[in-house]
Q: What sequence folds into this?
């Protein structure tokens, strides 16, 4: 007899993820790997604003974990004025940097990091920096992180595994905030229900699927995931506070998880109403009953 603790268990959320598309925001734990910290060294004091035809300059450092800077540039503007493009044509161990000439007396400068002519944006909203009065302002940006650092001491480049999805029977797709080293890859572990473990036989970086920030990896397993584990997978890493849930995503398009002949919906009778739903990654459904259509809270659950 099957151990009742090994039955399929999960809420309806994974099915919703399938509808929202790849790597939609998923709240929850994030696995954190060992920090990688390229030197972030201030350079603004070594620059003369007059060399850029200005009385003041803004230096914007930009770090992308995959070092894929081609096409990325800075769109920047004095507050309430028109914007200009600035190239990330300088380089330090931290990444690339742009020097922006500033108008005399400017107090705030807006900016957006973009790819090409608005093909993509790294952080979707406008950001502003308060300008120093000495004529040299310097900030550091990390791809995918909306924080604006005015000191290298506040930068955290710890690699985080943001989300994990089961897309094929033997492949898990993970989104990370940075590059995983060979040592970090070797410490990843996939677990199923009842402490069943899966060996990761290969880790492949997917450059073709990289988002505007971070990286995408395929974790190839040594065998297909068992049917009863599809909704019970987790990913662990020694640097993580707790296991990261692996959500079933593209795998749910498989015929095995499609109720082709089921009659779904509600059926009304004289004495009762029967509800029929289908979710291959669920073991429980809550039915909420309201006294009237305008009742703010359910009368029974």
A:
């Amino acid at each position: 007899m099957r151990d009742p603790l090994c039955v399929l268990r999960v809420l309806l959320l994974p099915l919703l993820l399938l509808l929202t598309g790849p790597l939609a925001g998923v709240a929850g734990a994030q696995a954190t790997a060992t920090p990688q910290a390229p030197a972030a060294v201030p350079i603004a004091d070594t620059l003369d604003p007059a060399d850029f035809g200005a009385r003041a300059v803004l230096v914007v450092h930009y770090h992308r974990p995959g070092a894929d800077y081609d096409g990325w540039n800075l769109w920047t503007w004095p507050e309430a004025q028109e914007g200009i493009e600035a190239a990330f044509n300088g380089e330090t161990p931290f990444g690339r940097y742009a020097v922006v000439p500033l108008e005399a007396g400017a107090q705030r400068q807006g900016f957006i990091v973009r790819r090409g002519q608005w093909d993509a944006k790294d952080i979707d909203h406008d950001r502003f920096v308060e300008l120093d009065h000495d004529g040299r302002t310097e900030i550091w940006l990390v791809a995918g992180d909306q924080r604006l650092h005015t000191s290298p001491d506040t930068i955290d480049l710890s690699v985080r595994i943001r989300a994990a999805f089961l897309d094929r029977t033997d492949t898990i797709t993970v989104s990370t905030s940075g590059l995983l080293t060979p040592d970090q890859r070797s410490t990843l572990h996939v677990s199923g229900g009842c402490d069943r473990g899966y060996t990761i036989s290969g880790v492949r970086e997917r450059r073709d699927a990289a988002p505007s920030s971070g990286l995408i990896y395929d974790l190839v397993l040594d065998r297909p995931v068992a049917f009863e584990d599809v909704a019970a997978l987790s990913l662990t890493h020694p640097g993580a506070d707790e296991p990261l849930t692996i959500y079933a995503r593209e795998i749910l398009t498989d015929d095995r998880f499609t109720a082709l002949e089921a009659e779904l919906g509600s059926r009304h009778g004289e004495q009762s109403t029967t509800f029929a739903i289908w979710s291959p990654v669920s073991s429980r459904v809550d039915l909420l009953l309201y006294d009237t259509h305008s009742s703010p809270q359910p009368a029974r659950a």
Remarks:
- Confidence is low (pLDDT under 50) at residues 1-29, 31-36.
- Residues 13-20 form the longest helix (8 residues).
- DSSP finds two helices and 20 strands in the chain.
- The first strand starts at residue 31 and ends at 32.
